[in-house]
Known about the structure:
Elements: H1 20-34, E1 41-42, H2 43-58, H3 62-76, H4 83-96, E2 100-104, E3 110-114, H5 116-130, H6 136-147, H7 156-190, H8 194-218, H9 227-238, H10 241-254, H11 260-279, H12 281-307, H13 313-330, H14 343-346, H15 383-399, H16 403-414, E4 419-421, H17 430-442, E5 450-453, E6 459-462, E7 467-470, E8 473-476
Antiparallel strand pairs: 1-3, 2-3, 4-8, 5-8, 6-7
Helix pairs in contact: 1-2, 2-4, 6-7, 6-9, 7-8, 7-11, 7-12, 8-12, 9-11, 10-11, 16-17
Amino acid sequence: MNLFSVVPDRFFSVLASPLKEHYAGILFRIYDQYLLTSLGMERDVVVDVIVDYIEEYWEENGQFAGALEDEIWEESLDNLSGSRERAAFVLRRLEACGWLTTETYSNYRQYVNINDYAIKILDTLDKIRKNRQAEYQGFVYATYTLLYSEEVNRQANLALEKAYEQTELLLNGLKTLNHNIKRYIERVLAEKQPKDILRIHFEDYKQEIIDRSYHRLKTSDNVSRYRPKIIKRISEWYNDPAWVAATAGLDVKRGRYPDRSTAEMETYSRLDYIRQAYTEMDELLEEIDRRNSQYANASFLQLKYILNSSKDVEGQLMESLKYLAGLLREEGYRRDQGLPGDFGRLFSLFSQSYVDYYSLYNAREAARSHTPAAFRELAGPGGEERRKALRKYREKMARRMTRERINAFVLEKLGGKDSIRAREMGVEELEDFLKLIYAAAYGNSRLVNYRVDFNTGTRVSSGNGRFEFKDALFLRRRPRP
Length: 481
């Protein structure tokens, strides 16, 4: 769907006008008041909110007053003198751009509501304005609670949907933290005064990044606490076709998807997204650690560069470069001009060569005639040796525990049955025991025609007590309809 089939064309015009800061301030005040109501706000209350804002900034900001009067004249060809008249104009402007809607209720009173799409945009802008930091542990704990709640079997589709949303919020929060650290690196490299670098490091960066996000991410909000259980539950659902089919059926009943096939595909997609997000999260966490170390190193080197006042060659060269950079910035020197003042005599650059091993003259040598030796075919292995080597290779390949071989082994043991216990698989020799181990390992793969249930069964022994293992249940996996 096209964005502007939902959002009006002039929606963002108030945030791109000369009064954008004040329109944003008015919208945020209306939004804060709107959150306290349930059925919208009376029109007179909204006008009072706008009047308070206009009167607050009218006297202390002459530029705001002039810009608002110019806009009123351009829109209505009128000069409004009262604060309520100006507030009513601002309200009509916000209504015309699609931010607000006025309705008349059965009590003949007019109520102002913020449009649904405008609420979402204002909520996002308000979080950006207040610099709200994500509570990463909250997202992880919410996902864990959804997956292990008592109602998960009755409303599995809702649990999966909300867990998917919480995982999206978690990843977006971590990506935002990574980007914010990069932004601070750029800020500290752009500063030229030591006090500004120290303020950024010990005030802004410490409060906004270290205290609010990075320290919590490493301590109380560590995502590794619930991650193994989340991955375990998602993997169980992913490898259970019956659960996927039931969940897809619930989504079809809700009208989320037109048919069961589409619903199952979306269910698998969400399960895979959550599992992949938590499995590969270490890479993103390592990148955040690397960015944090990079910021610390950048701030230290930038401060060292600015404060370097030593009298050695490095310090004197730094002072000279600072002086030349100041000339280019302040006095308009061009890069193609010569060095000013006595700087030209300080540098005498020339190319210097020296004699070394590679400088010696290489005398020419006469061409030599070359008589190649006769080609002699080496004796290779005979036919019998090749057949013997090939037979050993085939025997070695036959002993490999491939997924296809193990799948055939389990299906052979199942025969015509739907399930079989591990103790019934005839584990007498070491090779049989190895096949049982591989069969249990391959049970989570969707490429085999069986699955393994470890939740039931006790430990048993076989082979005259040489082998001990859990009496797991091997079940035939039915193809999805």
